[in-house]
C-alpha cells in the first residue's frame, strides 16, 4: 500500500488560487491527505474550501488565531500521513514536483525545493529576489552553507523526523529556518532539488507587499537566525 502523504496548506484570502492548488495536488499525489488551515478569510476562501472537504481533506477555520507559523503547527497536529509536506497555497503550479520528492525520500529524510542549487531560479520582482538572497546569505554565514535555500519552505519529510527535531512555531516563515538548522545539527539527511519560483498569481505577496514590510520582517528573520545559532538543543 502506498504511504499516505499529508500536505499542509495555510490560507488567508486565497479565493483566487486555492482551487487550482487543491486540484493540482490531487492530480499529482496518490493517497493524499490535505490539511488546510484558514485564518477566517473575509474573501470567501473558506466557502470554496468547504466544497472540497471529505475524508481525505480536512478544513480547519481559525477565528481566534492567525499567522503562518501557528497555522503550520495546527496543520501538522492534524496530519496522519507517513510523509508530511508544505506548499504555499498560491503556488499550485509547483505540485508536479511532489512525485519526485516522494521518490527521493527513499534515501533521504527531508526533500526541500531550492532556488539556489544548480537548475533553480527565482523569477519574482527584484526587491523580493534580493531580499531572499540576503536572508539566505546571512543564514549561510551564521548557520551553515550546506543548506542553500533556507526560505523556500516547500518540503516533504518523513514524519519520524519529528522524533529528533520539532519546529518552534512562532513568528512568520522564519520558524522554518530554525527548524532546518536544527535538523542539520541532528544530522537529519536533507536533500535540495531545484525549482523555479515564478511571480505570485496575484503579482505580489500579501505578507510582504513593499520595501517597508520587507525591512520589518527582515529584522525578525535576522533575530531568529541569531537565536537559532545559539539556541541549545
- Beta content comes to 15-25%
Number of discrete domains? 1
CATH fold name: Spore Coat Polysaccharide Biosynthesis Protein SpsA, Chain A
Strand arrangement, major sheet: 3-2-1-4-7-5-8
- CATH class label: Alpha Beta
Average pLDDT taken over every residue: 93
Biggest sheet character? 7 strands, mixed
Cα-atom radius of gyration:
17 Å
* CATH evolutionary superfamily: Spore Coat Polysaccharide Biosynthesis Protein SpsA, Chain A
Morphology call = globular
Q: Count the DSSP helices.
A: 7
CATH architecture identity: Alpha-Beta Complex
Distance between the termini: 36 Å
Helix percent reads 25-40%
SSE ordering = EHEHEHEHEEHEHEEH
**Count of β-strands:** 9
Helix/strand/pairing category: alpha/beta
The low-confidence parts are 201-205
Q: Can you give me a brief rundown of this structure?
A:
The protein is an alpha/beta fold. 36% of the residues lie in helices and 18% in strands.
Would you write up a description of this structure?
This protein is α/β, with parallel strands linked by helices and 233 residues long. The protein has a single domain, classed as Alpha-Beta Complex (Spore Coat Polysaccharide Biosynthesis Protein SpsA, Chain A). Helices cover 36% and strands 18% of the residues. It has seven helices and nine strands; from the N terminus they run E-H-E-H-E-H-E-H-E-E-H-E-H-E-E-H. The protein has helices spanning 18-28, 45-50, 68-77, 98-104, 126-142, 174-185, 211-230, and strands spanning 5-11, 32-38, 57-61, 83-86, 110-114, 121-122, 155-158, 190-194, 196-197. The strands form two sheets. The chain has a seven-stranded mixed sheet with strand order 3-2-1-4-7-5-8, with helices on both faces. Strands 6-9 form a two-stranded parallel sheet. Helix 5 packs parallel to helix 7 (211-230) and helix 6 packs parallel to helix 7 (211-230). The chain is globular, with a radius of gyration of 17 Å. The N and C termini lie far apart (36 Å). The relative contact order is 0.16. Mean pLDDT is 93; it is low at 201-205.
Amino acid at each position: 500500500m502506498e504511504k499516505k502523504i499529508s500536505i499542509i496548506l495555510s490560507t488567508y484570502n486565497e479565493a483566487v488560487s486555492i482551487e487550482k492548488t487543491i486540484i493540482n495536488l490531487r492530480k499529482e499525489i496518490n493517497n493524499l491527505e490535505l490539511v488546510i488551515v484558514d485564518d477566517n478569510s473575509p474573501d470567501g476562501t473558506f466557502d470554496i474550501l468547504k466544497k472540497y472537504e471529505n475524508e481525505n481533506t480536512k478544513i480547519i477555520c481559525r477565528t481566534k488565531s492567525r499567522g503562518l507559523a501557528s497555522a503550520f503547527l495546527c496543520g501538522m497536529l492534524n496530519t496522519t500521513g507517513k510523509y508530511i509536506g508544505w506548499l504555499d497555497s498560491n503556488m499550485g503550479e509547483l505540485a508536479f514536483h511532489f512525485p519526485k520528492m516522494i521518490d527521493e525520500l527513499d534515501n533521504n529524510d527531508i526533500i526541500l525545493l531550492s532556488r539556489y542549487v544548480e537548475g533553480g531560479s527565482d523569477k519574482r520582482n527584484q526587491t523580493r529576489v534580493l531580499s531572499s538572497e540576503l536572508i539566505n546569505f546571512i543564514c549561510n554565514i551564521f548557520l551553515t552553507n550546506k543548506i542553500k535555500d533556507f526560505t523556500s519552505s516547500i518540503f516533504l519529510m518523513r514524519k519520524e523526523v519529528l522524533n529528533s527535531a520539532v519546529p518552534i512555531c512562532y513568528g512568520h516563515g522564519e520558524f522554518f529556518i530554525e527548524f532546518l538548522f536544527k535538523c542539520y545539527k541532528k544530522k537529519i539527511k536533507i536533500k535540495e532539488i531545484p525549482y523555479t519560483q515564478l511571480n505570485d498569481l496575484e503579482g505580489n505577496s500579501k505578507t510582504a507587499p513593499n520595501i517597508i514590510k520587507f525591512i520589518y520582517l527582515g529584522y525578525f528573520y535576522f533575530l531568529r537566525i541569531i537565536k537559532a545559532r545559539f539556541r541549545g538543543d
